[in-house]
């Protein structure tokens, strides 16, 4: 486990998102980290030191002037002994304090005294987040080396307000912590890898489109796994309901043509992995206005034309990446179809998966794939999509090993 033996100091600021920090403690603990907690005075209005202490099985530090705690551990030791300091929720106030070097309570004193990396998970009202003062403070903190995860868009505690300001989910924060503390070898550092993921949406009129069931889970997991091995990953994602993976630059597109343009603009690359379920066809023209269900006219006739085949275009490109990996989603004749795609699209490998409804692959969390190349077929067991991603990233790293960075 990446976090085993790692010490994390969690600073809980005063905001309603503090309840999520209890889950964060559990998530970090599950991953092998040992966690110490500092709570601001405001945080104690939202969760109690008793609850936090029950989860960490440790003293919870709340007061800069607590003589006993200062004698036992002291704020300087708190600041130095951790491998990483996580501030969650990071309130506008805590951000402002650190950006300006204030240190009038335990949390801010620890933040000023540390030389360890700091990760902030901001949570505040969207107006506070977009205020020029907070934006300034964030820019200052980033310049000083502070890392950020979130905030996300979505519903706020004040139901009427929506916007950017929700704290990142505990799992996202845990992933960001893992990415920061991951000291495993990075065989893909210096490599640029392009990944496509998710479905595409092909517009019919301003309100309707043609799409498919792809969730983006597999493509996003592959992008994240490649980034964990040190690659500079550019993920071109169609519309999906999942978060951008951490450590990856994500470019959002809607249509196959936009995805194609984005991928082309990202060349040259060392490798490209085409996981997206690109719509093969699109309506020939997009109606400028919503198509009305006029009496007696019957359903509209959609005339379809072919979309660019992104993988085939890159597989035969003059600036073709060294390694081109395709996917083959099939409901029948899996191996024969995958082998044909390998040839036709100019890929080095095709990851073939059976997506017939009974397998539950589309939208599900598990996958059973076969790696088809000119030299044969390698069958992998049924794995979670995250495990498939990790194995595929290692496989790609192995293939790129012999080429110059
Ligand atoms: N692909 C692509 N651009 C397209 C269609 C597919 O880049 N317009 C890529 C997919 O990302 C995948 C591979 O091609 O890596 C195969 O996709 P798949 O949907 O299985 O194959 P198709 O070429 O669409 O063939 P068919 O639908 O006939 O099986």
Account of the protein in words:
This protein has 405 residues and is α/β, with parallel strands linked by helices. The chain folds into 2 domains: 7-181, Rossmann fold; 192-400, 3-Layer(aba) Sandwich (Rossmann fold), CATH 3.40.50.10300. The protein has 14 helices and 22 strands. It has helices spanning 18-30, 49-56, 67-72, 75-81, 92-100, 106-113, 126-130, 132-143, 170-181, 217-228, 256-265, 310-315, 334-345, 385-400; strands spanning 7-12, 34-39, 60-61, 84-90, 118-122, 147-148, 152-155, 162-166, 192-197, 202-203, 209-210, 232-237, 249-252, 271-274, 281-283, 304-306, 323-330, 349-354, 366-367, 369-373, 376-379, 383-384. The strands form 6 sheets. Strands 13-12-9-14-17-18-20-21 form an 8-stranded mixed beta sheet, with helices on both faces. A 6-stranded parallel beta sheet has the order 3-2-1-4-5-6, with helices on both faces. A hairpin with a 5-residue loop joins β10 and β11 (209-210). α1 (18-30) packs parallel to α2 and α5 crosses α8 (132-143).
């Amino acid at each position: 486990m990446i976090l085993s033996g790692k010490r994390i100091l969690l600073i809980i600021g005063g905001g309603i998102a503090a309840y999520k920090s209890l889950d964060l403690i559990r998530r970090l603990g599950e991953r092998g980290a040992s966690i110490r907690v500092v709570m601001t005075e405001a945080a104690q209005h939202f969760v109690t030191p008793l609850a936090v202490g029950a989860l960490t099985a440790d003293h919870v530090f709340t007061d800069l002037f607590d003589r006993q705690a200062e004698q036992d551990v002291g704020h300087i030791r708190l600041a130095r002994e951790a491998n990483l300091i996580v501030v969650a929720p990071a309130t506008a106030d805590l951000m402002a304090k650190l950006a300006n070097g204030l240190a009038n309570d335990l949390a801010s004193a620890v933040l000023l005294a540390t030389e360890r990396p700091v990760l902030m998970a901001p949570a505040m009202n969207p107006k506070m987040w977009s205020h020029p003062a907070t934006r300034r403070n964030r820019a200052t903190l980033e310049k000083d080396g502070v890392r950020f995860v979130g905030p996300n868009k979505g519903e706020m505690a004040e139901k009427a307000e929506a916007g950017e300001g929700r704290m990142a989910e505990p799992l996202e924060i845990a992933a960001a912590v893992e990415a920061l503390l991951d000291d495993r070898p990075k065989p893909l550092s210096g490599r640029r890898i392009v990944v496509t993921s998710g479905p595409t949406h092909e517009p019919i009129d301003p309100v309707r489109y043609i799409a498919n069931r792809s969730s983006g889970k597999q493509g996003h997991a592959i992008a994240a796994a490649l980034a964990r091995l040190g690659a500079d990953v550019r993920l071109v994602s169609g519309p999906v309901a999942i978060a951008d993976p951490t450590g990856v630059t994500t470019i959002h597109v809607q249509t196959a043509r936009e995805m194609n343009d984005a991928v082309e603009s990202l060349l040259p690359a060392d490798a490209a992995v085409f996981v997206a379920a690109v719509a093969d066809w699109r309506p020939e023209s997009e109606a400028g206005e919503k198509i009305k269900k006029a009496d007696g006219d019957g359903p509209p006739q959609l005339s379809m034309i072919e979309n660019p085949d992104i993988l085939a275009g890159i597989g035969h490109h003059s600036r073709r990446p060294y390694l081109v990996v395709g996917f083959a989603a099939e409901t029948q004749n899996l191996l024969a179809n995958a082998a044909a795609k390998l040839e036709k699209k100019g890929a080095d490998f095709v990851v073939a998966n059976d997506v017939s409804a009974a397998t539950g692959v589309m939208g599900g969390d598990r996958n059973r794939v076969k790696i088809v190349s000119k030299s044969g077929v390698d069958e992998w067991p049924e794995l979670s999509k995250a495990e498939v991603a990790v194995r595929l990233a290692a496989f790609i790293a192995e293939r790129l090993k012999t080429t110059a960075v």
